[in-house]
Specification:
binds magnesium ion; alpha/beta; binds adenosine-5'-diphosphate; single chain; four-stranded antiparallel β-sheet; 36% helix
């Protein structure tokens, strides 16, 4: 676990500014959701935190350490994407073990990590199956399993549920929250879905066009929206 901080972070693509001075403080163990309309810069912020995108100005800190310039593999984080492409020719166990194998971890350590992760996710009986033999929800769990086995300090989720049907989406929200309650890993979760944000977050960051409009607990944003954008986006009656 670790705290995460964005301090006056900016990002331009060419001459086009997309992140325009963002400050966010995330406490150790917190579940924070970045929410806002499509194109407002949520994925870019997450990708900068992961080290998949350079930052143009400002500082990002993980556990107090400035990570600007560190490669993704030098940051102790794991990311779950919307398109959780599993390797189709590998079993569930091998999919989950893949990043550990890449790092050269011995088989004994791989087993020690994959088994409990599979248990937490209800995948123990599916370890020898292939992705095509799984339901959508099971595949999503394998994608999360790949992140969990790395036991990172921070989890990043980018719209992990947007490809699932409505019923499964609701069930997976609860599962991800339970997982967080169990592991207490600092989590930064991106969605454009207000309901997902309101039901899952400890703290919500409302973004709009490259800036942060407001940061607060779900009820705080609902009761005291800072402006009309937050009010209309969150759906509160201001
Ligand atoms: P969100 O995840 O909130 O939908 P993004 O972070 O993906 O938004 O994108 C924010 C803005 O940055 C958008 O206008 C998008 O078109 C632009 N953008 C994202 N990635 C690139 C890129 N690699 N090159 C140029 N523009 C980009
Ligand atoms: Mg996005």
């Amino acid at each position: 676990m670790a705290s995460v901080e964005f301090a006056n972070v900016r990002k331009s693509f060419g001459t086009h500014p997309v992140i325009k001075g963002v400050d966010i403080e995330i406490a150790d163990g917190e579940f924070v959701i970045l929410v806002g309309p499509s194109g407002c810069g949520k994925s870019t912020l997450l990708r900068m935190l992961a080290g998949l995108e350079n930052i143009s100005a400002g500082e990002i800190r993980i556990g107090g350490q400035v990570v600007n310039g560190l490669a993704p593999k030098e940051r102790d984080i794991a990311m779950v994407f919307q398109n959780y492409a599993l390797y189709p020719h590998m079993t569930v166990a091998d999919n989950m073990a893949f990043s550990l194998k890449l790092k050269g971890a011995p088989k004994s350590e791989i087993d020690k990590r994959v088994k409990p992760a599979a248990e937490i996710l209800g995948l123990s009986h599916l370890l020898e199956r292939f992705p095509r033999q799984l339901s959508g929800g099971q595949r999503q769990r394998v994608a999360m399993g790949r992140a969990i086995v790395r036991d990172p300090q921070v989890f990043l989720f980018d719209e992990p549920l947007s490809n699932l049907d409505a019923k499964l989406r609701v069930a997976m929200r609860a599962e991800i929250k339970e997982l967080h309650q169990r592991l207490k890993t600092t989590t930064v979760y991106v969605t454009h879905d207000q309901i997902e944000a309101m039901t899952m977050a400890d703290k919500i960051v409302v973004m709009h066009d490259g800036i942060v409009e407001q940061i607060g607990a779900p009820l705080e944003l609902y009761d005291q929206p800072a402006n009309l954008f937050v009010a209309s986006f969150i759906g509160s009656p201001a």
